[in-house]
Amino acid sequence: MENKIKIADLEFNLLIDAEHIKNRVEAIAESLNTEFAGKNPLFVGVLNGCFMFMADLVRNITTPCEISFTKVASYHGGLQTTWQLRNDLGLAVDIEGRDVILLEDISDTGNTLKFLIDDLKQRNPASLTVCALLLKPAAQQYHIPEVKYVGFEIEDKFVVGYGLDYKELGRNLNGIYQLVL
Ligand code: 5GP
Ligand code: MG
Ligand code: MG
């Protein structure tokens, strides 16, 4: 695996290789298999970034489960400095009474997760558990108790790969790469 890569105009260094990701994802699946044994959880992935995490995680889930997706886009509204979120693809399934496991690629400020959790909770799931592959503790603006599983805590630096993009590029990389500043 390359240690240094260039994507568009920026350089990135390898931060987490494919082997480490695989081991961590399998460990999370193992915990979920124990926690949700005998239940039929519904996995909800946040597109686009979660697609690889979802694919690798659910391959290791042994309890019968359903898989669905939602999509949110964050954008700066006008001259405001706060993030606004737009739901681009509403969740098409009824989650009332379901054990919902929300999968997110990365939690940075926590704004996206907070928005999604508030929305999902209004639909009365039996339970709501969040798994974030990556989390930047230094950037978190909220305490989100629903976040029970985190793959890796990382520095507050921009990363790409394993689903995450820079200018829509790099999602296909099988490792996670950190921006060289
Ligand atoms: P939030 O600040 O709401 O927690 O994160 C918003 C979204 O920004 C994340 O879901 C993710 O799509 C994107 N994001 C946050 N940090 C990074 C990063 O380091 N790299 C990439 N590619 N996307 C990020
Ligand atoms: Mg995301
Ligand atoms: Mg992005």
Structural class comes to alpha/beta
Form type: globular
Measured distance between first and last alpha carbons: 21 Å
Number of strands: 10
CATH class: Alpha Beta
Number of structural domains: 1
> Can you give the helix content as a percent range?
10-25%
Radius of gyration: 16 Å
* H and E order: EEHEHEEEHEEEE
Q: If you consult CATH, what is the topology?
A: Rossmann fold
Strand content: 35-45%
- Bound chemical compounds: guanosine-5'-monophosphate, magnesium ion
CATH architecture: 3-Layer(aba) Sandwich
Subunit arrangement of the protein: single chain
Sequence stretches where pLDDT stays below 50 over 5 or more residues = 76-82
- Going across the biggest sheet, name each strand in turn: 5-4-3-6-7-8
Domain Phosphoribosyltransferase: 19-167
Cofactor: Mg(2+)
GO molecular function, one term: guanine phosphoribosyltransferase activity
Subcellular location: Cytoplasm
